[in-house]
Amino acid sequence: MSEWWTYRPSDFLLFSPRVYERLIEAHNAALWPFQPVGVLLGLILLVAVWRGRDGEARLALAGLGVIAAWVGWSFLGQRYAAINWAAGYAEVGFAVEAVALVAAGVVLRAPLATSNALRRATAILLIAVAVVAYPLLSSLGDRSLASAETFAFMPEPTAIATLGALATLRRRLALALGLVPLAWCLYAGMTLWTLGDAVAAAPLGAAALFLATLALGGRSRQVSGERLRSR
Amino acid sequence: MTSPRHVVTRRAALAGAGALAATAALRPSLAPAAAPLARPIPSTGEQIPAVGLGTWITFNVGEDRTLRDECAAVMEAFFAGGGRMIDSSPMYGSAQPAVGYGLRKLGRPDALFSAEKVWTSSGRDGAAQIEATRRFWDVPRFDLLQVHNLLAWEAHLETLRAMKERGALRYVGITTSEGRRHSELETILASTPLDFVQLTYNPLDREVERRLLPLARERGVAVIVNRPFRQGRLTEALEGEPLPGFAAELGATTWAQLILKFIVAHPAVTCAIPATTSVAHVRENLAAASGPLPDEAMRARIAAHIADL
């Protein structure tokens, strides 16, 4: 692209809002009634971050990896790639993220327990937004309730919750593991913004909050769950 | 790339259906009164209707059966109105299978003039991509294959010329959009034998009038115009504005028709390819290519009026 600066986000938009909404509706319909299980898994992740117990946290991090693989394959690969060839590349990214998260869950000790109040608050806020608020936000406005996007089934809430969990880790590790969900939040946010969907603010805001927390939140000292509860 | 105009939301479709029913009797121009104006392809003299059908965004509907049927309905109205050229690209997501679905549903209309593109950065991958595209369309061969956005154009032109020589292709072309890489396009146009060139042209994007359109005419290259409505932004911006009085002299009853008349009246232009999801709009677009067309003075008035708005 010798004149790349002349391109606008809308130049890369391949589909209409109606097509995208119907795609999500079809995905939801095919997997119903399992979406509440996604919400339940999200709440379990929230509790794991809140308590910071070693075993639970490691299981939660590995579980996020399994969910990333599932979302990448089931939505990005099997559905979204049909109307957006870029989703095929994103599916590969989610697969890499899945392996990295599972490995982190196996290797790290007490991964989601942090003594840093800002990082902990960001983690809980992002996970809560992804699990509880995002399905509601994504079905507001012109969108139907049938196109509500739930954690563990759609990439945006899954990426936001993942960023939340990663906000508790050491800065470099958080950035390395957060590369894929961060990139997805930026890409999805731009896509939704180009489609005229106000929910674009959620993934873009989540990415900004994650980066701001890592920049301003200071070091994240991993602590055990017992120490967290005694504070 | 073509210009999706008024991509219809569910709400708009419902509102539009009612409005159409109410106004159909008052707007006879929605049904083409005559066959659309045809223009010769300079390299062979074959006549082609001056309004075609683009598929950018509008035909990228995935495997949604309802939306594929809607695309087929647009194609049916297009062929019924005398249209021939349908243009797509591997870049347009699932538009190619949607076109293939429509063609199969309509019994493979004889009138079809199939215009496709090759879009891959590797010249070696071109032939395989073209074959995959042909299978999507389910046609024995393409009428026109174009190098999309000049990507690896030297290698792909070689492939396309070889296909043309052995009878696997009728016409060879090259495309750009939105005014990009015009100097490179000019060099190619001046030095390379081509049947078609595709570029963006409308009353606001007129830079091609200075060099590319005259050069195409001089070199005997057919011109396909994409994004006639600036991906729908132009017609949306003009919505609510009253048509100028002189539109009636041309038989144009909508801004879209006035813009299309402006475009196809240029002597170098062979065909404009607006994209739409609406049967009413495809009829309206084809109707623009019948009846009187503006002369040079009138074209200048149209461009000046729209620029003022």
From TrEMBL, chain A:
Keyword NADP: no
Transmembrane regions: 30-50, 57-76, 82-108, 120-138, 150-167, 174-193, 199-217
Source domain of life: Bacteria
Matches recorded under Pfam families: DUF6064 (PF19540)
Alphabetically ordered keywords of this record: Membrane, Transmembrane, Transmembrane helix
Name of the protein: MFS transporter permease
UniProt organism field: Methylopila turkensis
InterPro entries for the chain: DUF6064
From TrEMBL, chain B:
Organism the protein comes from: Methylopila turkensis
Keyword Nucleotide-binding set for record: no
InterPro entries for the chain: AKR2_Oxidoreductase, NAD(P)_OxRdtase_dom_sf, NADP_OxRdtase_dom, TAT_signal
Domain of life: Bacteria
All copies of domain NADP-dependent oxidoreductase, residue ranges: 51-299
Descriptive protein name: Oxidoreductase
Secretion signal, residue range per the UniProt entry: 1-33
Keywords, comma-separated and alphabetical: Signal
UniProt keyword Signal present: yes
